[in-house]
Request: fold
Amino acid sequence: MTVGLVALSAGCTGTSGNANPTPSGGSTPTSNADQGSGLKDAKPCDLLSESEVTGLGLKYPGKAKQVGTANSCDWAVSGNGGLQVGIRTDSGVKDLNLDGDKITQTKVGKYAATKVEAQDGAKNNCTFAIAVSESSSVLVIGNLTSTSEDTAAACERSSKAADLIAPKLP
Reply:
């Protein structure tokens, strides 16, 4: 899960965050601030139900943890990696350092997303970074055992999970 931790802590580029961001003008009901605050209340382990987790072949319940500024949840697959979901209320997808063997822009539900195959060269890993707003994102990271090089299987795991999670996002 080390690569997942790198992806969740990505975006920490040495610049200090602003706890009180300056409003960017306009106050429509769909403003970034409103979407970010809706995501702030979300708990990563609640984004997948028990039946969804077991349907993905993962162990329920997940384990909640803090990774950098991201709230995350890990679900394991006995002997074959797992899935990690991280909520970043302070970093949009554009703010993250997403690097991999193949990066493509896609959609997950109604959201724009970035698919990163083999994040940081780890062939056992695939990340979907979902742009909830300009300043918030959800990372869905599927991974297999560290000896695996089956990026397609990792992408299948993270893609299925992302499709289940997207309708629950603000």
